[in-house]
Every structure is written in structure tokens, then in C-alpha cells.
Amino acid sequence: MTSFEGASVLVTGGSRGIGKAIVLRFAEQGAKRVAIGYLRSDQAAEAAADEVRSLGAEPVLVRGNVSSDRVMREVAELAPFDAVVHNAATGVIRPALEVENKHWDWTLNANARALLSLARAAAPTMQPGSSFVALSSLGARRVLENYVLVGVSKAALEALVRYLAVELSPRGIRVNAVSAGLVETAALDHFPNREQMLKESRERTPAGRLVEPSDVADVVCFLCSPQAEMVRGHTLVVDGGYSLLA
Fold first, then answer.
1. Can 147 be counted among the known catalytic residues?
2. In 100-225, which ranges are E strands?
3. Catalytic residue (one of 20, 38, 147, 242)
4. Which run of H or E residues covers position 101?
5. pTM score of the predicted model
6. Mean pLDDT of the 188-196 span
7. What is the dihedral of CA 160, 165, 166, 171, to 10 degrees?
8. For residue 223, which phi and psi values (nearest 5 degrees)?
């Protein structure tokens, strides 16, 4: 098992779902301090913090919009980090012709530009061997119903990962992405065709089941570990083989 003994990590969107699974995995593997970024649910964040504390790590709550200057100042003050995971995501789920410019700005800022802001805030104090990992989705490369804004933002995120991987490599900092298949979390509640998506994914996935938050957490921790030293600018797909089928 990978060890993060004594490490300091930040996970945006870390109070629930996939983000919480990543937070707890770092704590289980010995992280000393785990900063949990979240938007507004204090109750969920406090619950996640209690679980982190029970695992022997120190939780730090970072509340607010991850694309805001205030949150970035707080991130810089909490640095240095051994790993920064950008899991926070949002977006307007509508057909392309029904979205507005404000929806574009909101989605692109939170899902893609926030990674650049995190790099500017955290990278200057990160040591060689540290990592950034961003959470993407299959919609970055495939067309999903009503997913245009989120899909475009995730495509931008994956491109940014490649650029940052090259620019930060001289500092010894790795940058990668994880593209997860469908995971049954509260985020799916925003999709009008939620049940259809879940049914199709269960039937199509060669692995025979849906991806679980713990599956994603395991891969994120691998990419943040020394074993992934030569993996840079890569988007690792974790979907049980779903995207392999024509």
C-alpha cells in the first residue's frame, strides 16, 4: 500500500462523494494534515472532518468557491502541500442552445481555471516529488446528453494538465488527471435522465459494476505516489472498460 506518512494534502470538493473518498484514503495512508475544500455544506464538511480526525490526521476546512481569490489566498497560506487534488466540479446541465454566457463562465472557472489558480497558489512552495491530480470525466472526449458545458470544461482541464505537467516538471512536480466513469453520487441528481444513465452503465460496463468512489481514490493516491514518478500529463481512465465499447 502506498504511504503518505506525514504528508500534507488538499482535496477540493472533499466533503462528499468521490472527494470524500479521496480525503479518507489519504488519511488512512498516513497523511498528517488533510485540507478539505468545500462550497457551502458545513454539516457535510464537519462530518468529513470528524472521520479524518478519527483516522489520526488533522483536518482543515477551506470553505468557499474554489475559483475565488479569497480561497486561493487561503490555499497559499496553508501551503506547502505534498499533493493537491482538484475534485470540485459544477456546471449547468442543459442543451447547448439553452446555455447562457454566465453559465459558461461559472462552469469553466470552477472546473478548469481553478486548477490553474491552485497551481499558482500552491506550486511555488511544493517540493520535488509533489503532485497535482485533477478529476475529469468521460464527457471531455465523448458527447453526453445536456453535458456540453461540463464536457468542454473537462476537455480544457485535461489540456491544462498537459501544459502544467511540462511546465512544472523542472520543479519535480507531477501533474495528471483521472477520468472516472459514472459514479452513483449526489452529483447525478442534477441529470434528468439519472436512472437511465445508471441502468445503461451497469449493463454496458465490462467490469460488471459501476465505478465506486473508492476505485477513484485508489488511482488518485497512486498518481500522487513515488510509484507514478514517470507518469506525467496523463489522463488515466477509470471506468471498468465502459468507454472501450463501440
1. yes
2. 131-137, 174-180
3. 147
4. helix 101-108
5. 0.94
6. 70
7. 130
8. -65, -25
